[in-house]
Amino acid sequence: MSNGTRIDPEEREPRAIKIRQPKHTGRKIVFSVLAVLSAVLVIGAGVFAYINFGDYFEFDKFGKTSEESSSPESEPEIPEESFEPEIPEESEPEHIVPEEPAEPEVPEEPVEPEKPEIPKDEWFMLLVNKENPLSEDFSIEAVTIDAKGHTVDARIAEDLSAMISAGEAEGLDFVIQTAFRTYAKQKEFFEAGTTDAAPGTSEHNSGLAIDIGCANGNFEGSPEETWLLEHAHEYGFILRYPADKTDITGFEHEPWHFRYVGKEQAVLIKESGLCLEEYLLQE
Ligand SMILES: [Zn+2]
Q: Which of 57, 62, 82, 229 is the most buried (most CB within 10 A)?
């Protein structure tokens, strides 16, 4: 071993290190710069992507998808209790109050109930008086209603019989005084002075009217009159010549004279308080 060739490894090594160190340092700087640039690029790309395509992924501020944010878990932020105070209990009676005045308005609507149409052209509504006389050739199908041979229009016989039977069932005793009288018979009586009703002007000429008496004395004030005033309309008959309608009917009050108009119309006429002339003049 010679001293000349002896090389102190500790001296040579540092030399080599000192030479190499700049190289290593330079590489580290380059790598560091590259790493920083790469990081900047990655971050920049991420920011760019977030800005430009963030909506596509539907991320909201809280990092949740819109489906997650709309989930029921997020609703408790608006508690339901907060809505109740907004509807105070006092508001309920306020809603009822305006409805109450509306109810009384309802009955005002049916103020004008539809009146049933008056069957003015029906045979049972035939108007016969001094202004509306029947013609000489007027005729009916007459049927006999009692042992005395009184006749009426066949179409009223059933209701007339039912009315008389109903009264007799309550102990009343009706007597038919006058029923159908032909035009010719009316003419005979008129010319003889027995009646002041010209031929065709008496309702008895129509076969739709009867004069009813009672077996025991005066008809006026009798139980038979009282019963007929209460029940005649139930069988289709009306008191034809009321005391308060003489100016319109042209006849004095005849408490015994009843006229058939059919059950339905008899009820309506009785309720109206009108005589037949007034009733038929209605629209
Ligand atoms: Zn009569």
A: 229
